[in-house]
């Protein structure tokens, strides 16, 4: 039995394009060019809407841009698709505390948004 997954040329190209876009989004995020990062994450989501991880990345980007409404929408999508993700369960995690997402050094914008919007 062949366990190797074989992709067609078009599937390989699409995957390579997504990987390239993801590297651009991460680079823009690292450089604090959040507008560009958000734009690239939006393009990635348009190409792969089934991958919930990209919604989480875009939500973090929106939060850093102080667009909490858009961040909340992406967080809702992420949590709906990942209800068993350990950090979304208050009884299993100490992360779900309301925090000010604008506070310098706040690393838990996601958890603030989860509490705020859900």
Can you walk through the features of this model?
The protein has helices at residues 9-30, 34-47, 53-64, 68-81, 109-117. Helix 2 (34-47) packs antiparallel against helix 3 (53-64). It is mainly alpha-helical and 118 residues long. Helix content is 60%, strand content 0%. The protein contains 5 helices and no strands.
Radius of gyration over all CA atoms, rounded: 16 Å
Oligomer: single chain
Which class best fits the helix and strand makeup?
mainly alpha
Estimate percent helicity: 55-70%
Strand content: under 5%
Euclidean distance between termini CA atoms: 46 Å
Tally of DSSP helical segments? 5
- Count of distinct strands: 0
Residue-averaged pLDDT, rounded?
A: 77
- H/E topology pattern: HHHHH
Uncertain regions spanning at least 5 consecutive residues: 91-99
Instruction: Write down the overall geometry.
Output: globular
Major beta-sheet overview? none
